[in-house]
Design a protein that fits this description.
Number of domains: 1
Strand content: 25-35%
Number of helices: 6
CATH architecture: Roll
Radius of gyration: 18 Å
Shape: elongated
Strand order of the largest sheet: 1-4-3-2
CATH class: Alpha Beta
Length: 152
C-alpha cells in the first residue's frame, strides 16, 4: 500500500481554491470542478459528505484534530504578508517550540488548521547565524550533527 494524499471536504470549492492559490501560493495539478488537486499531494472536494452518504450535520468545524503543514524559509515575511490579508482567522501568532522551530497557525475557509513553519534547514541556519556552534545547533534542534553540516 502507498499513501496517496489528503482530501479536505469544503463547502465552497472556489473560495478554497482562491485561498490555497492566492494566499498560500499553491499550484493546482488537476481542477475537475468539484475536486481540485494541488502539488504536494492534497486535494479539496465539494460535496464530499454526499459522496460518502453523510449529511451536513455530520461534519464539525474547528475540530482541531487535523492540520495541513507547510514549510517556508522566511516565517517573519510570511507572517507579515498574511497579517495584511483581511478575513484570515489565526489560531496563534508566531510560536517557538523546544527544538527551535517557529510556526504560525491559521484557518482555511472551512476552518481546517493550516500550519506554516520554518523549514528545519532555516532553523539551523538561524541558530548558526546567532553564533551557536554546529554541535550546539544539533543539540538545540534535536537533529544529528550531520544534518546541521548538510545545511551549511
Amino acid at each position: 500500500m502507498q499513501y496517496g494524499g489528503s482530501l479536505l471536504a469544503v463547502k465552497d470549492v472556489n473560495a478554497s481554491k482562491e485561498f490555497y492559490v492566492s494566499v498560500l501560493e499553491q499550484k493546482i495539478i488537476f481542477d475537475m470542478g468539484e475536486h481540485v488537486t494541488f502539488k504536494g499531494g492534497f486535494s479539496i472536494q465539494k460535496n464530499y459528505l454526499q459522496m460518502i452518504g453523510l449529511n451536513e450535520n455530520d461534519i464539525s468545524q474547528k475540530a482541531h484534530d487535523f492540520q495541513l503543514y507547510f514549510e517556508v524559509t522566511d516565517l517573519e515575511s510570511w507572517n507579515s504578508q498574511l497579517k495584511n490579508i483581511g478575513g484570515l482567522e489565526f489560531l496563534h501568532d508566531i510560536k517557538e517550540y523546544a527544538w527551535g522551530q517557529r510556526c504560525i497557525r491559521l484557518y482555511d475557509p472551512d476552518m481546517h488548521i493550516i500550519e506554516i513553519a520554518e523549514s528545519m534547514e532555516s532553523v539551523v541556519m538561524r541558530f548558526l547565524k546567532q553564533g551557536l556552534s554546529i554541535e550546539e545547533t544539533a543539540e538545540r534542534t534535536m537533529f544529528p550533527v550531520d544534518f546541521v553540516k548538510q545545511c551549511l
